[in-house]
Give the backbone structure.
Amino acid sequence: MEFSDKTISQNLNTEIFGRKIFFFKSIKSTMDYAKKLAEKDEPEGTVVIADYQSHGRGRFGRIWKAEPEKNILMSVILRPTIPIEKFGILSILTSVSVAEAIEKNTDVKVTTKWPNDLLINGKKFCGILLEASITVESGDFVIIGIGINVNQENFPKEIQDYATSLYLETGKIFDRTILVQDILRSLEKNYIRLSNSQDFKSVIDSWKKRCDMFGKKIMVIHGGKTIIGKAIDVDEKGFLLLEDENSKLLSLSAGDVTIAK
Ligand code: BTN
């Protein structure tokens, strides 16, 4: 099961996503490399993928650790035509696309957790990171980072209760090439559909169908504050609507959610 730019390109049959692939055995972070490529005018859909990252990062500057040669660590360059204030929809679209690709290759049910985590049986196996650059020289672009725990068997003690992998949930070892190809195909289909239709609602609706936090009591850590309340909805910008303990409706653009047991 060789995993390389060559194997991913074979029979990929996409028009935009993955037409150019930069593959690394080891890199600091695929995000930084993709950003450099985007600044040098590499086209939309260009993929940077690595077997290992020494400085992988997650949201809020956290570290994204993944064992070498077992996982999917990739970044994709987008040059969206949608308005800048709506760029947040792209991580929601990516969540839905990854969920569809994973379900195509497994018999697990993938659920979404706001803002952009993917879970199996309540544990996170995929994180998505969106970094946007608004530049005059190379136009506005977005780098979407996707980290998926695929064949990793062990996780550090501190995160064992929250983190999982496809292997741990299914008992099977997966061919990462096939998963990456299906993710790129599904991303392309959903991205082209959104770009043509500008139908943000149907992307949010697909995401909401997979999310089981609505109506539940949740805790959100946001800007150093902890807010407890009931999850009401996610709007078309991807903001979370929450009713706090004083029945006040809040709209949050970012944060970390825990669902109360
Ligand atoms: C999160 O859940 O906090 C987002 C994690 C995103 C991790 C991916 S792995 C590939 C890409 N390169 C990085 O350094 N981060 C993203």
The CA atoms of residues 155 and 227 lie 29 Å apart.
